Amino acid sequence: MYRLIIFTLFSLSLSLHRTYAQTHCGSVELMLENQGNNLFTFNDFSSYEGGFPRTTLARLKVKVENKPVVDPLCSWNLYLNIDNNGAPIDEWEELNLYSNGLGQNPLLSILELKVTNDCETSHIDGNFIALTDVTDIIQIIKPMILDIKPANSCVENVNGPGDYISNYQEFTFKIEIRIKPGMTFNPGRFALTFNFRLEENI
Amino acid sequence: MKQTNKFKLFIAAAALIGTSASAQLIDEKDVSITLDLQPVLQLDMTTPDQIEFVFDEISEYQAGITKYAATILKVSSTVSWDLYAVGRSQGNNGPNFWDQQIDYGNDNLNSVNNLPLSLLELKQSHANNGAGGPTIIPSNQKDYSTAFSNAKTASGNNSIYVNGGTSTPPDETDKYIAGHKGALAAGDFMPGGSYMTQTGRSSDFYYAIDYRILPGLPAIFPMAFDADDNAEDIVSANTAASYAEPGVYTMYVQYVLLEDQ
């Protein structure tokens, strides 16, 4: 019985210690720089039909540090999901309508997103991705723990430790969007939130 | 019993260890964007300032005068819409009549200067594709796309909509150029769009309007019918001996583009 209590206390202390410890990396940090106005106003036919062709929304800067005792499995992934505050999954969140609202609220599909950096490390680099609904998770850097691409290799899916200061072309991501609403949706004010998440791979 | 407690403690400890193994470093950032879709509803009209119908030949009285494609209507809208025409005047002779600016002749007792606004006929270049909702009787009076009738056949198919001198929208059974009254029934509106992107002479965003006035002999305007298809010609509205008083008359056509109602 005594040995069992000792074993249990040891396990408990070990688990408490590990709750605040990372699996492989020392720290991960994601910085987001807004690149200007995030309000897109459509008030004439040119803007409705032509849309906002290409607008930089934000720049993401990644910083991932290894532990003092280097763990060769320290790697990370980065992804994006979308929040429309509970609206139907394929629509923008409605803030208010300007008309009788009998039509269709804007669909997510009017928005396309592009992620890029100098080394084209994202597998979706350079391509505008059309969104379909809020259940979409867009992997910018894929979670590949057994296939670690070290910093400064300038290849696809660089996911080893590093930071935007030493390896700007791999650890910085430019987020561009384009919106082309067309003329079939309800007039009004609508919103979306992009949630960027940096995780260490486990 | 002791063995059971030991086993439970062991399982609890193992579970705690297992839970802690999933700890993971994460950082998140959010950015929100707002879309401001402001409504745009625009009617472009190409037309002369004045469309004159001068009747100074018997044949013109008998066959009428037609002004082909005198008005071009072009629509751009970001909302579902309806388009209609309504005949109006200053109301000097009454809200449903042309304004008489001057009269010719000797004011014969049978000459009538109250010419109904509905004597003006319209013909739109192609049918209204947004009137699929309520049942419209007669079915060819959902719009102005029916060909002008023969001069010998009185018809209200093309008589302009008039509503007591107001610009109130036509009812469910009345004529619209595009779309129709009612926002709930399917197909009783025109969807948003623009003539700029949906081109062609049969585009639902482009209409050429012909005008006709047919006085007849005697000049009683047999094509004048009200919105309920009741005859409003000079004889029906007055006496059998009545005819239109010669003179100069004016009225105007108001084209109204509005969000689907």
Structure write-up:
The complex is a heterodimer of chains A (202) and B (261). Chain A is mainly beta. Chain A contains three helices and eleven strands. Chain A has one domain. In chain A, the strands form two sheets. In chain A, strands 1, 3, 6, 7, 9 and 10 form a six-stranded antiparallel β-sheet that branches. Chain A has a four-stranded antiparallel β-sheet with strand order 5-11-4-8, with no helix packed on it. The longest helix of chain A has 18 residues. About 5% of the residues of chain A have low confidence. Chain B has 261 residues and is mostly beta strands. In chain B, strands 2, 3, 7, 8 and 9 form a five-stranded antiparallel β-sheet that branches. Chain B has a two-stranded antiparallel ribbon with strand order 4-12. Chain B starts with a helix and ends with a strand. At the A-B interface, helix 1, strand 1, strand 2, helix 2 and strand 3 of A face helix 1, strand 1 and strand 8 of B.
